[in-house]
Specification:
454 residues; alpha+beta; Phosphorylase Kinase, domain 1; 2 domains; 7-stranded mixed β-sheet; 6-stranded antiparallel β-sheet; 17 helices; binds MYO-inositol-(1,3,4,5,6)-pentakisphosphate; binds adenosine-5'-triphosphate; binds zinc ion; Inositol-pentakisphosphate 2-kinase; nucleotide-binding; transferase; Ins_P5_2-kin
């Protein structure tokens, strides 16, 4: 970690985007090493005490949970732990081909303070209200910018898509209560849409169906891409030569119910620069997903969540050695009996259930970036896969990478359980009311999400 970024370097880093936990910056300076890279810096919820980098990277129970992954439990800071998690856990699950392990660089407090000031005007207001740069961090994560190809010949273009696929299967766990049986036939994504709409996080319900995207059928994948394009929310973005031209900056909210003038212009620009008509472009994306099989391992990793949160939550209480708050509030002796089996599991079995659950949670929340560029002279010599697009009679090469493979905190289990209940209850009530909104659930999910970034 030889590199140190100081206050005077901040001007070279420009805002690229952000999620709930990190702000991502692109490099615009003259260092050849940094060109084509992005810097991912951590945030902390507004008003919370800032994290002290290097201290309490993993909680006592997390150390127990990840004890077999030595590099992870010995990590000296959060950044290093995240990098080790990618390298020693997620890379094995998803295959190293689609993973960028990245590296970390030292950053001064002044660099972070200066970056925070510089990016302020580009950040969505609701992200500013929720969290700020964690200026107490002394390192940040440096990775390749996967929305561009390094060394793209002058005059050529590069177009990239970012997809946040979310959970691609329906759970079938025997521990899902009869009252929640709807989970076995309606995707979590769809049910969550109703709650998000009610909470003002989205402006309309997306018709995107993750089961289509993960189906392995070319037609269904195309259908999924089309619906993502129609309602991108925080699940779909397009970058042209590294700049976002379609989809929301900062993720989450999508305030516009109709496509903005800027976005329409952006799509026209895309067509002008690349010669690709919109259906052809969406077909290209679908073809890359289909022929690469890139989502196969992601789905298998998501399916490590075998018991569903309704089963895994009991194993969580075994690990933290506290009375199970779910069983405590249950009046149904039949259910109590069923869950007592989970509470009789030995510690190592409970630990495995939780490890698998959290790995699956990462796989349900990560994003996929696929970038394309036309092939010079018609054939790819670079080692990238290529696709021939009949509709435009063009050859493209592409690369695919997963981003945001962060480890989920064990402490989030109670939140996962509560959010799951809330989503299902709200969805069923919305349906009972013929789709009209139900006022019985009012507590903001966003507020609760934020507290887990501490
Ligand atoms: O719980 P979910 O499914 O809403 O996922 C959260 C995401 O919401 P969304 O994709 O919009 O539904 C959420 O995304 P947004 O903030 O809504 O853009 C985060 O990705 C969050 O992860 P983390 O807290 O940053 O580690 C995600 O939390 P995890 O569940 O992955 O821990
Ligand atoms: N390696 C990369 N190359 C190009 N763009 C990137 C890269 N990593 C992140 N980004 C951009 O920055 C945005 C935010 O990054 P990221 O998803 O890692 O943040 P996060 O806070 O961890 O998200 P979440 O809300 O899912 O927790 C992404 O949506 C993407 O547009
Ligand atoms: Zn229990």
């Amino acid at each position: 970690m030889a590199m140190l970024l100081r206050a005077e370097d901040a001007k070279d880093w420009i805002y690229k985007g952000e999620g709930a936990a990190n702000i991502v910056l692109s490099y615009r300076g003259s260092s050849l090493f940094l060109l084509g890279k992005v810097l991912r810096i951590q945030k902390v919820p507004k008003g919370s005490t800032k994290s002290v980098n290097g201290c309490a990277v993993l909680s006592r129970h997390e150390k127990l949970l990840w004890g077999d992954v030595e590099e992870l439990v010995e990590s000296k800071s959060k950044d290093i732990a995240q990098q080790n998690y990618i390298k020693h856990v997620m890379s094995h699950m998803l295959g190293p081909k689609y993973i960028d392990e990245g590296t970390y660089v030292t950053v001064s407090r002044e660099f972070l303070e200066s970056v925070e000031k510089n990016v302020h005007d580009q950040r969505p207001a609701w992200r500013i209200n929720a969290a700020e740069v964690d200026t107490s961090c002394d390192s940040a994560f440096l990775i390749s910018d996967h929305s561009v190809f390094t060394g793209t010949p002058r005059g050529d273009f590069c177009v990239a898509v970012e997809i946040k696929p979310k959970c691609g299967f329906l759970p079938s766990s025997e521990f899902i209560t009869k009252a929640n049986a709807i989970k076995k036939s309606v995707t979590r994504f769809r049910m969550h849409q109703f709650l998000k709409l009610h909470q003002g996080e989205i402006s309309n319900i997306s018709e995107y169906n993750p089961l289509d995207l993960f189906s392995g059928s070319k037609d269904r994948i195309y259908q999924a891409i089309t619906t993502l394009f129609a309602t991108p929310q925080n699940n779909f973005r397009i970058f042209l030569n590294g700049s976002l031209i379609f989809g929301g900056l900062g993720g989450g909210m999508d305030s516009a119910a109709v496509r903005s003038h800027e976005e329409n212009t952006a799509i026209k620009d895309l067509i002008k620069v690349s010669g690709l008509q919109l259906p052809g472009f969406l077909e290209l994306v679908a073809e890359a997903i289909f022929s690469s099989g890139v989502l196969d391992k992601l789905l298998a990793t998501q399916k490590l969540d075998v018991l569903d949160i309704e089963g895994a939550i009991h194993a969580y209480y075994n690990i933290i050695s506290q009375p199970c708050m779910v069983c405590k509030n249950l009046g149904d002796p039949e259910l109590l009996d069923q869950y007592s089996l989970l509470h009789s599991f030995p510690l190592d079995k409970s630990l495995k259930i939780l490890r698998d659950y959290l790995i699956a949670a990462t796989a349900k929340d990560c994003s996929l970036m696929i970038s394309f560029r036309p092939v010079q002279g018609g054939s790819a010599a670079s080692g990238y896969n290529s696709i021939f697009l009949e509709s435009s009679n063009q050859n493209f090469e592409y690369k695919a990478y997963f981003i945001d493979l962060d480890m989920k905190p064990l402490e989030k289990m109670v939140h996962y359980y509560e959010l799951d209940q809330k989503i299902v209850i709200f969805y069923m009530k919305s349906k009972d009311l013929g789709g009209s909104l139900c006022d019985s659930i009012t507590q903001g999910t966003k507020d609760r999400k934020i507290q887990y970034h501490q």
